[in-house]
Amino acid sequence: MKLKEMLSDYQLGEQPKWDGEQIITGITDSSRDIKDGMVFVAIAGFEKDGHDYIPHAIAQGATLIVGEHDCPEALPIPYLKVANSRRVLGQLADKFYNHPSGRKRIIGITGTNGKTTTAFFLKHLLEQQGFTVSMIGTIYNEINGIQYPTPNTTPNAEKLHELIAASKDDFVVIEVSSHGLTQYRLESVAFDYALFMNLQHDHLDYHKTMAAYFEAKAQLFDKLKPDGKAVVNTDNAWGLKLAQRLVTKGAAVITVGHQEDAALSIKKMTNQEVTLDISDETSALDPHMPGEHNLYDIAMASAVIQDLGYPLADVTEQMRSFAGVPGRYEIVHLKDRIHCIIDYAHTPEAVTSILTSIHKDGAERITHIFGFRGNRDASKRDEMITASTDQSARVILTTDDLNSVPEEAMRQEYVDYQHQFAGTHKIDIVMDRTLAIQAAVNEARASDWILVTGKGHEKYKTGYALPTASDKETVLYLKNSEK
Predict the structure, then answer these.
(1) Running DSSP on this structure, what letter comes out for residue 72?
(2) With contact defined as beta carbons under 8 Å apart, do 205 and 165 qualify?
(3) Which helix (H) or strand (E) is 407 found in, with range?
(4) Helix, strand, or coil (residue 169)
(5) Of 90, 169, 311, 387, which sits most exposed with the smallest number of CB within 10 A?
(6) DSSP of 308-326
């Protein structure tokens, strides 16, 4: 793309002499990635300000600088001042990659819980219909059958457009975070389907209120293509509010829930199966992953499959070959019928749901191991402790990602919870996460269940006593040590 084409929608004003015929080779908001002919978009971040790196970007060969500040004096290349650099990054990337989302079938999934599992369900079911599917999300990005590591649930705008443009697959399924929406990482991405899973207590350190959190999630539905459709879980109060809003706006909405008038009306839920009624036809769906939360996930994924014209009656059989989701209800069977489950659950509702599911699977005594993340939403911690102690025989508080919080400060918070719940519930503290899991395994009785939550598939960020890098590796290490 030529520079004059890149700037066709913008006014540069008086600038140094520049060559509009120059070929733009790329766009980035990281000065470290600049190569000759690229556009550098300076973004004022939460820790660093990209405007401070403009000289470095120019030295590396940048052709154009985009920023929010007044133009620095005597720049040797054009400078485009904009009101919102994050937003313009998405707009320029969309233009550079020739509007890739408009040329693909794009499915976006948002919600506090269930995004990852639903994305995996959708990918599997679409593949069962003969489609190829790219997936962009929390665990990894998969494009054209190749998996790549991902640092965020939703990549930045330039990377997201690049991934969509690179995909030769029939569908692209994207996990959409509230942070990604408010930070314009989805700018200029257009969706064929947008799914709203739920809204639960989380991220209030960032959004401050549930209302603001909801409005952040709701932004996804402004990005639907003219013929795009919303799929909304109306059993969630925030989902019901969203569906009503979208209907008022004249949007196409597929509702999923227990209401009689839901497009996919839920008639029955067990721990293993959800029965849906659509157009007077009833189908029972088994995701082969127990738990009410997974039943909602399969129902939402199946709503898309059904709308594409494929029968719900085939879903259960098609899910038999599903390989599971890393870090989501992963079960490791230990000796003496002791079962250990690793899951990402990190909200009070998610903890309640998975503990309920484990009890329905036959657990009588559960040891629950989890911790809190430093510098993250502290307002949900009381609720999480309560959710855990209500259904666990024993709770072990341990470290999660401490971030910049000293371990001793987190330990003291755990001691406060010990005192708060003294006399009613047993709470132990083992700050080394691997030793906490080891203690639960060593002290488990026959047929006990152990639940480890919070990190799921994620690697440890700190070193622990055992030579392992994740919760699953720790449990497998302990299992192998039994032999």
Answers:
(1) P
(2) no
(3) helix 407-420
(4) coil
(5) 311
(6) TT--GGGHHHHGGG---BT
474 φ, ψ to 5°?
Answer: -65, -45
Q: Distance between CA 40 and CA 89 in Å, rounded?
A: 9
E strand or H helix at 191: strand 191-196
Residues 251 and 365: their CA atoms lie apart, in Å, by 47
Cβ distance 271 to 291 under 8 Å?
yes
Both structure tokens of 105: 């079938």
| Structure tokens that stand for 251 in this block | 């949007």
The beta-carbon contacts of 303-311 under 8 Å, at least 24 apart in sequence, are 303/231, 303/254, 303/256, 303/263, 303/264, 304/107, 304/122, 304/193, 304/195, 304/231, 305/122, 305/125, 305/126, 305/129, 306/264, 306/278, 307/193, 307/229, 307/231, 307/254, 308/129, 310/129, 311/283
Q: Are 307 and 267 in contact (CB under 8 A)?
A: no
**pLDDT < 50 regions, the chain:** none
Query: Residue 460 and residue 404: Cα distance in Å, rounded?
Result: 15
Residue closest to 45 by CA, chosen among 65, 29, 22, 60: 29
Count Cβ neighbours within 10 Å for each residue of 98-113 and write b for 16 or more, e otherwise: ebbbeebbbbbbbbbb
Tell me the pLDDT tens digit for each residue of 424-460.
778 999 999 999 999 999 999 999 999 999 999 999 9
